[in-house]
Amino acid sequence: MLDDEFTSRCSNVKGGIDITVLDYFLFAAILSIWGILIVNLILTVAGYINYLQKSRQPAPELPADPPFVSIMVPAHNEGVVIVKTLQSLLNFDYPKERYEIIIINDNSDDNSAELLAEMQKVYPHRNLTVINTDQTNGGRGKSNALNIGLKQARGSLISIYDADNTPQRSALRYLVAELMNDDKKAAVIGKFRTRNKDASLLTRFINIETLSFQWMAQAGREKLFKLCTIPGTNYVIRRNILEELGGWDVKALAEDTEISFRVYQMGYRIAFQPLAVTWEQEPQTLDVWFHQRTRWVKGNIYVILKNARLLFTKAGRKIRFDLLYFLSIYFLLMTSLILSDVMFVLSVAGYVHSDLVGFSNTLWVLAILAFVISTFITITTEKGEMNFKNLMLIICMYVVYSQMWLAVATNGMVGYVREQIFHKQAKWYKTKRY
Fold it and tell me: Collapsing DSSP states into helix, strand and coil, what is residue 78?
């Protein structure tokens, strides 16, 4: 009897199998993909409105007596880029006597120590400190390095820059000025741009992704929910809040997202100031990009699972949207895209027939149009980015780059599960510099 029921549900169609139950899964996948796409469209519109409003506002100004700032730069084998980064930090137009620079040379085995020692000789009268760690206390990731630097920092405000950054002269001034105009702001983040965007097709994709992320995910969420996520570089945060939080979580690979969630729960805000700009180096090869983004996926999954219990509690009200958004991106969207791709391939090969395949393909085309239009809107906020070449790149991104992201997300998920099963400590992947 069960065999008869199964046979009635499955029949040969043009050499394939008509499995009607797959229609339900495909329909659910379509709804999921479009639901997340619509949310992103709403964020894009809100972000663009935020951009228009901020562009009309006067630049924030420092108080008459600006606070002392400790700039911390965690660096592991960064000899290729560290001198250029340090020169940019020394060139800030923030009052020279009101900030210090702390480089945490974290268990490096390249020429970083020698280069930094030479820089201290060149700038003997500047507040420049180099902390050289070894295997006994260093080499355990960015969070550990930042906690080491925090112990020696003297500033009431802490600013973080990655070792590959070349911030504009005004970046620190704008960050601090924005933070000091509201006591409810725990941190202020700036904008980051891709300085090697013309190095390869991959860096061109990343450049567009970066611009889109800032105005879609950051400016849009700030406008609608007063939420921003610390991006890991080019930000300033109050020292007393860091100390109350106990510093950075040494288990977190995405220490920026993790500490953002804890700041939200304290009742403080994180603001976005687009006038504070830094230029950073992005991965130029697929291998480096894949490892870097896998680390990001693992880090964000850790943050999601760490805070998932707060999803429907009063304590988690402040971070509820972000938790749902991250859960949707890393679990629901990933599953839906995989199912949609598999169904598309099997239907083209003739192995599976679904009444929804044609409907799915129509929505797929509409999704591409929505993605292209919304992404192109975001890059119009930057001078020189609104051109036909970038329009073609955006179309290509949906077909190629999104599938690359799917592979990274899947690999990161599998890697995270494997580490939990075998009780392995997650390793910090060092991004290659050029």
Answer: coil
Q: Which pTM does this prediction carry?
A: 0.90
Which tens digit of pLDDT belongs to each residue from 6-62? 444 444 444 444 456 677 777 888 888 888 889 989 999 999 999 999 999 999 999
Q: Which residues pair with 129 in a beta bridge?
A: 102
Domains of the chain, by residue range, sit at 12-67+156-434
- 207 neighbors 196 (Cβ within 8 angstroms): no
Task: Return the DSSP state at 434.
Answer: -
- Give the tens place of pLDDT for each residue, 92-104: 999 999 999 999 9
Pairing status of strand 69-75 against strand 269-280: unpaired
Give strand pairing partners of 274. Answer: none
**What span, in angstroms and rounded, lies between the C-alpha atoms of 386 and 378?**
9
State in Å, rounded, how far the first CA of the chain is from the last one.
66
Q: Where are the beta strands (DSSP E) in 327-383?
A: 352-353
Residue pair 68/96 in contact by the 8 Å Cβ criterion: no
SS3 219: helix
SS3 281: coil
191, β-bridge pairs: 277
> Which carries the bigger pLDDT value, residue 356 or residue 66?
66
